């Protein structure tokens, strides 16, 4: 089941914990920053 954006926004606003799929959807929609480490260019 895919979480609705309104549910994800509410959880972010209230500081509730997001599930894996909710976090992935929030990152894809630009609601949360990605935690992926950037590779350093030498």
List keywords for this structure.
42 residues; mainly alpha; 45% helix; elongated
Could you characterize the architecture of this molecule?
This protein starts with a helix and ends in a 14-residue tail after the last helix. It is mostly helical. The chain has helices at 5-14, 20-28. The model has no long low-confidence stretch (mean pLDDT 86). The chain has one domain.
**Helix vs. strand class:** mainly alpha
Total beta strands = 0
What characteristic shape results from the CA principal axes? elongated
| Annotation field: number of helices | 2
Q: Please state the CA-atom Rg, rounded to the nearest Å.
A: 12 Å
Helix-strand layout with pairing:
Layout: H1 5-14, H2 20-28
Write a brief caption for the model.
This protein is an all-alpha fold and 42 residues long.
